[in-house]
Design a protein that fits this description.
about 270 residues, alpha/beta, Rossmann fold, 7 helices, 8 strands
Length: about 270
């Protein structure tokens, strides 16, 4: 897919202003959920991997959906769709910002078949996430069956083979989304060679889904560590002579080396 990738290291609220009017067919993105202040209880075990509920510092910065509406409306074509992963504490903010701006505001529920376990049995499992879905009257749909039209979808959380790892095989991004869910949304809401925009790129899972489904894509990411990991993921996945396990090991090796150096550079700049 030549000329299909546009990868930008920048603040999405600024860089999206450079995208031409009426050029994007689908916005599919996963902005911060702003739940870090609630997710602070870590649990240590001596018989299994610890459960770490800490999220990255970027989730502590408040996201205001009102800041997104104007530019999203400008760049989208008339047959567009929007899908935005979010959480219980943010869904009302998206409704408040988006509902009056578009013909339809709905949501999907993604049920995770294997959520993080709750060993204390004192509250619900965190087994569901929400996905904002917006469109106007002439939007694009590719439903083939009634089953595809449900706004309740299920999958396993991002599997080990999909997870981007770095030091000591730790997960690089805490909320990386599974390819199955991303592919489902892309298939029902866009066509081959359509242009997909992801303003919160993280570690390029949406890119991989678009590549499989022959969509063009623009990605914006402001975090240098995630951006560097995405570059490595792109390069490694383009290698044709490696087995799947060899690709995983190579991604881990080059990500460890380059990201450790990058984190040191960032620390020095902040001192």
């Amino acid at each position: 897919m030549k000329n299909s990738i546009k990868l930008v290291l920048w603040d999405c609220l600024e860089k999206i202003k450079k995208i031409p009017d009426n050029s994007v067919d689908l916005i599919l993105t996963d902005p911060p959920y702003n739940i870090a202040k609630y997710s602070t209880w870590n649990i240590k075990f001596d018989w299994r991997q610890d459960i770490n509920n800490d999220l990255a510092e970027w989730d502590l910065k408040d996201l205001n959906p009102l800041d997104l509406v104007k530019e999203y409306k400008r760049v989208l074509k008339s047959t567009w769709n929007i899908f935005i992963f979010t959480s219980y504490n943010m869904i009302w903010k998206f409704h408040e910002a988006f509902d009056d701006e578009f013909d339809t505001f709905q949501f999907m529920v993604w049920h995770k078949k294997n959520p993080v376990p709750n060993f204390f049995k004192k509250w619900f499992l965190n087994s569901c996430e929400l996905i904002v879905a917006c469109w106007n009257k002439w939007h694009k749909w590719n439903f083939k069956t009634q089953a595809e039209m449900h706004n309740f979808i299920e999958s396993w959380i991002c599997s080990w083979k999909e997870r981007i790892k770095w030091i000591d095989w730790k997960t690089l991004h805490p909320t990386q989304k599974p390819l199955d869910i991303l592919k489902h949304i892309i298939e029902i809401s866009s066509n081959e060679w359509d242009l997909v925009l992801d303003p919160f790129m993280w570690v390029w899972s949406t890119w991989e889904a678009c590549k499989i489904l022959w969509r063009r894509f623009i990605w914006i990411e402001m975090d240098k560590i995630y951006f560097k990991a995405s570059e490595k993921r792109l390069w490694v996945n383009e290698l044709e002579n490696l087995t799947f396990i060899e690709k995983i090991n190579l991604i881990k090796k080059i990500t460890n080396k380059s990201l450790l150096n990058l984190k040191l550079d960032i620390s020095l700049q902040l001192v």
